[in-house]
Amino acid sequence: MTETPRNRPSHTREEPRFGSIDAAQDAVSQRAVMRADVRTTRHGGSSSTRRGGGFWLWLLIGIVAVAALGYFNQEKLRRLLPNTELNDLIARGNQALAQNKLSGTHGDSARELFQSVRVLEPDNEQARAGLDQVGLHMLAQAREALQNKDYPAAHIMLDGAQELLAGGAELEKFQADLHAAESRGSQTEAVLQKADAALAAGKLLGAGGAASLYQQVASADAGNALAQNGLKKVAAALANQTRDAIAAGKLDLANQHIGELAQLNASYPDVPELRGQLAKARSDAQADQTAALTQGVERGEAELHAGHFSGDDGAAEAIFQDLLKRDPANARAKAGLRAVAQALIVQANAALDDNHVDVADKLLSHAEKLGNTGAELQAARNHLREAREQLDIENQRTQISPEQQNRIRQLLLQANRALATGNLIVPPGDCAFDKFRAVLAIDGNNAQALDGLKRLPQRARELFERELHSNQPGKARIQLDALADSEPDAAGLSAMRRRLANAYLDQAEQRMADGVPTDAFRALKNAREIDPQNPRIADVDQKLR
């Protein structure tokens, strides 16, 4: 069926039409017949027909010639006429390109419009150039998508650019860059997943912790929002841990967390607040501790005064020991322990008076563990030793053999000789004290040995005075020690110590005057050991220095 303007597709271009030779001949024949009929009707006769026949023949030949010329030049004429549809498609394609509407499926994208031109005219240069521009724009959009890490969009734009530009160095380079970026992105995603898992598990710091993993990503990509957000979450978790530690009274742990938080993010806004909370918590804890220590000391002292010295957790000793664990420098707790030790020594002496040697030994050992090593403990030890020896003598008393009697005579002779020469307690094993004790070990009731021990303190006093008068404080000290060992509660012992200390102090000043500072300081040291409370010590020490 012949198309009419009504049913012809709207996008089909109308070409100028010049007709055909047959149509022209038909038209000429019809016109000639019509005119012949008219003339015949008007004039009649055949002569008219013959005159007009030649005219119409030449007219027909002219018309045929014009028709043939139009037919053979119609394509040339067509190119000279304006092609409005192609121009419109190209203009719309350029407009879509300017609006960056590169591709689509609705027929209004630059790619679709330029391709429509090529369908109508495959060699159209404007359409080919337009499609090249579309490809370049797609490549530019692919680069932008890569920069934004939108890899699927980058692939779509790259595929479109490859279809339009048909390869090239730029496309190959971009494809390699995209592949490398996707590989890095996969690695980054794996690290971020590990970091998220560590954060969820509460492993914030250290190797494999959330902080180090997020920082690893941020170091490689400072603009990575997931890594930055992850570091913020780690900081918030550390801040919460700090608050929990402060609330639980774990102030050292809280201080550690604050340091870790400041190292992770020095400008984290909660750090000043957390430090303030920690400072207040420490102040409150110190006040509470001071109050608790005071109450503990008072309770220990009350137990001590009640005679509850030791033996269980509620005794004075246990209370003072616990206080010193919390506050090693607590003076009242230390004094309390010394008082407990003193009470144990008193109990030990009472046990010795009742011949409970083993009980006394345990009490004295306990007192010594508490730090009591003073003269009272030493005297109690001597008392214990004597009691134990006496007990051994009584338990093992037998008939003394002639050999033992001979040994006793030798020991007594040696003991008296040592007593005369002043070797009262030194040298050990060969002094008067040890010789008399050796006799009593054989014969616990030997009168000469007992008498010799009784004479020993008086002999020590005599020798002390002699050595002190001779300005021999070192030898005088030996005799003073002999007196203290043989008679711990001897009258005037403190005064003798003061005199001996003064002799050492005089010696110190003299040695300094003689230009021998080493001897001077040694003498000062001896004075301080013998009589620590001597009022001259500080003055002499100042002079020496």
TrEMBL record:
<keyword id="KW-1133">Transmembrane helix</keyword>
<dbReference type="InterPro" id="IPR011990">
    <property type="entry name" value="TPR-like_helical_dom_sf"/>
</dbReference>
<feature type="region of interest" description="Disordered">
    <location>
        <begin position="1"/>
        <end position="20"/>
    </location>
</feature>
<keyword id="KW-0812">Transmembrane</keyword>
<keyword id="KW-0472">Membrane</keyword>
<feature type="transmembrane region" description="Helical">
    <location>
        <begin position="55"/>
        <end position="72"/>
    </location>
</feature>
<feature type="coiled-coil region">
    <location>
        <begin position="370"/>
        <end position="397"/>
    </location>
</feature>
<keyword id="KW-0175">Coiled coil</keyword>
<protein>
    <recommendedName>
        <fullName>Tetratricopeptide repeat protein</fullName>
    </recommendedName>
</protein>
